[in-house]
Amino acid sequence: MNLHPLVPSHMSSSQIGNSQTPVWQIALSQFAFICAVLASLAVLLNDIYYVSQDQYVLTAVLWLLGFIFAFLSAPKGLMAMLFCLPLVANLHRYIEIISPNTIVAIPMPGIDLVAGFFYGWILNSWLRKKDAPFSSITQFIPWQVGLIPALITVSTLLSIARNLRMSAASTSLDGLIFNVIHFRPIYWDRRPDFLPIGDWIAYCLAAALCGMVIRTLFHCNYDRWNAILFRPLITGLFMSACIGILQSITGLGLPAELLSFRKDALGYAAFGMQPDLHAYAALMLLGVLGLWGYFFICKSKTEKYLILVTVGLSILGLIASKSRASLIFGLLGIILLFFIFIYFRYRPLFRVLSLATFSFLLLVLAGFWIFLQGGGNLAGLQWVNELYTESQKMNWSSLSDLTGLFGSRLEIWSAALNMGGTFPLLGIGQGDFFRLSSIISFSRSYFLEHNGGENAHNYFLQTFAETGLVGIGIFLFIFLWPWFHAEKKGILIPAGVALASLMIGNIFGHAFLVRELLLIGAALMGLIYALSLHSNPPIYQQVHEHMRTKRWLKIGLALIAVLALLEAISSFYRKPFGWGADCFVRQEISQDGWTSGLWEERMVPGQTQIRLEASPLRPNLIKKPVQGILEILVWEPGKGKIPIAEQTLNWTSNQTQTFNLVIPAQYQSIPQVITARLTLSSCYTPRNLGINTDERRLGLKVENVRID
Predict the structure, then answer these.
(1) CA nearest 617: which of 647, 575, 657?
(2) Which of 169, 415, 678, 699 would bridge with 443, disulfide CB 3.0–4.6 Å?
(3) Nearest-10 Cα torsion for 406, 409, 411, 413
(4) How many beta carbons lie within 10 A of that of residue 528, not counting itself?
(5) String of b and e for 474-498 (b: at least 16 CB within 10 Å)?
(6) How many C-beta atoms surround the C-beta of residue 128 within 10 A?
(7) Confidence band, pLDDT 50/70/90 cuts, at residue 541
């Protein structure tokens, strides 16, 4: 019997050594399994919630489909799921076109497909392989990949703890469970404290998918491994490209506000089955660049022709996306692949062909430039003409002009480096880039402050900012391990090329935030690991003994862990994670009568008093009473706002209380600015306590406020 569930079935125990798998590796695999179980359960409960509200949701159907796919046949089900992943991110919009019912738009529908597949796969494994030990099922995720759930779990917990501190809002176990079940929809722009839960679920399911791909392939004929993954992806890409091209011609499926976006002679800007053009362009890059590795190992001529057709359609889809950066990367990638091809196929003519190709490209670029310099205009391609005009007017030595030409990306990337550099080891926390990027003293970006925050438009920089050097180191280790481990590295090239093409779409964008693309990447990573393990099965006795000789490595990791712990603890007392930073923000009273933790209003001349009737409407006030200070302040030059009258407020119940505060007589006729201000001891967020999905930082419910 095999000693490890990931060792190919043809390996005997004598070939893999006599020792058991190291305990810490088992722990990582089983922790990843537990995370996958909980993440899948959260997805299921989220779907049940929507269905119980009689809402039409696509996600529940996808969960059921994924379960059926895996339960009936793991290999065929895996192929069916991989076919669906490129098509489901924006599927609800197309269903609405032919359906009289409104489909609720729920983000990340692809994770429902994987969550259902996970439970169906577990049930299939348990029922059809009764002689397999249960530990084999719980250890199907490689310990290397298991580092991802471990990292994201730590980073997510750290993010949520610091978010709660910034919100000055309490939570509870009920609140945590509520947010896990109601993790969708949680909107970035509302900055909810439990936002990182969605990222945690996505990464845990990505790790599970990687493991399921490995285990499923190990039970299939080795010669079919690449085909099992690439054939459904090619079919899904074919359909995605066709839909995008059709959309570019007709505008089908585009919302009204985007029908005029980059509309030119080539049609509308196509999103295909994705939520935005950058995600669609990243998917098309998989078709343009990522299929060539499989093309050269594919033996079927018919399949080769289908790949070429898909590549051609993907090129058209990439052009239709109107993503300028992705188009440039696609062209550069095609040129690079061409050089690699002629190097290996026509090596004696490599120099001649390379020189001829470079000369041709230079002539084309020179002719294009001369045409535009001479006043030429590309009819119907207004975005190209505008790009040329902007480049002519800009000062190339000006960082401001350069960042404007690249859609403010340089400024955003600089902000990502600033934010990550403040907490270099663990970063700012998973899922918190959007929330914290709008703080100009932290990001040092006027663009991000003006726009109320943004994502980094570079997934790798955002990963560094959120998870720090520790996170980057772990991801690099996971990606590079199979390449160092495999004896025959050439067998990894087809899947490696495909994964690299997906990653290219994340250099000028953050396509992996569309989690369906992240899941496709995880499936390709699973193929790479499966091929690597098959090429060189682990001999655990030797590996374990070798690790024991690396004491310096253990000491280094222990030192990093201690420094990371110190950074995490100290971060709670450093900006921007100050107590109440998102609570004690001056806001107007909302339409439903709520203040934030800080409310202030200017008093006009002649007004002498303020009368406030309010109640906290919070649970558990006996244990956690609400205190506050109602003040009248006068602004004095050189001193700022000076309190001239104040009253302490205290609530231990939700009864409405009335407070009066009068301006002292000597200040009633002065010309200085006078304001009334209410400051509370904490905020209250209903979502954090599991009451409802309101994620605002609330102060008091004001029944009446009068300033006379």
Answers:
(1) 657
(2) 415
(3) -140
(4) 25
(5) bbeebeebbeebbeeeebbbbbbbb
(6) 10
(7) very low
Q: How far apart are CA 214 and CA 64, in angstroms?
A: 23
Domains annotated on the chain, with CATH? 24-208 (no CATH), 598-707 (2.60.40)
User: Can you give the C-alpha Rg of the chain in angstroms?
Assistant: 29
**Residue 587, amino acid:** Q
- What is the rounded average pLDDT for all residues in the chain? 86
**pLDDT above 70 for 279:** yes
pLDDT digits (tens, 9 = 90+) for 464-476: 999 999 999 999 9
Q: How many residues does the chain have?
A: 708
Token output for 495: 């899947």
CA angle 202, 203, 207 (to 5 degrees): 120
Neighbours of 656 (CB within 10 A): 16
C-alpha distances out from residue 104 to 59, 98, 109, Å: 9, 15, 11
Cis peptide before 576 (omega within 30 of 0): yes
Tokens of 321: 């996306």
- Give 247-262 pLDDT, tens digit per residue: 989 888 887 777 777 7
| CA atoms of 150 and 337, how far apart (whole Å) | 37
Contact 685, 179 (CB under 8 A): no
Residues 6+ apart with CB under 8 A from 677: 598, 599, 600, 601, 630, 631, 632, 633
Please say whether the beta carbons of 480 and 528 come within 8 A: no
Contact 138, 554 (CB under 8 A): no
Cα-to-chain-centroid distance, residue 170:
26
CA nearest neighbour of 584 among 697, 700, 439, 437: 697
Mean pLDDT, residues 146-166 taken together: 96
Q: Say if residues 225 and 217 touch (Cβ distance below 8 Å).
A: yes
Amino acid at 477: F
Encoded tokens for 612: 């406030």
Q: What is the DSSP string of 58-126?
A: HHHHHHHHHHHHHHH-HHHHHHHHHHHGGGSTTHHHHHHHH-SSPPB--S-THHHHHHHHHHHHHHHHH
Query: Look-up: residue for tokens 């577990």?
Result: 122
- Rounded to an integer, what distance in angstroms lies between the CA atom of residue 506 and that of residue 418? 20
Give the residue among 348, 238, 257, 333 at the shortest CA–CA distance from 292: 333
